[in-house]
Specification:
This protein has about 120 residues and is an all-beta fold. Helix content is about 0%, strand content about 55%.
Amino acid sequence: QVQLVESGGGLVQAGGSLRLSCVASGTIFSFYDMGWYRQAPGKQRELVASITSGGKTNYADSAKGRFSISRANAKNTVYLQMNSLKPEDTAVYYCNARNGYIGVDYWGKGTLVTVSS
């Protein structure tokens, strides 16, 4: 059973920073492409950033220059460093693990990030 557990969310003032973590268990972490998604109230879930098993990163335009995704395979963990946070970054942030070769896709339960103005 693959589990993804996010942490690091909370309340922060605009301009502040947070680092989200997602720990995976029950699988060989290094085989998975990892991503961070977010869902704001009344909106669809959207990709924030992703990192492949080989370390290639991709960012939504809204995250470029402010957020950074990284992974530590030895710790089964993916991180999202978020700087210069804005109120519009307020959302539940979800961790995703995907392996296209075997056709599996897993989600964490999410962590809430609230940015006050």
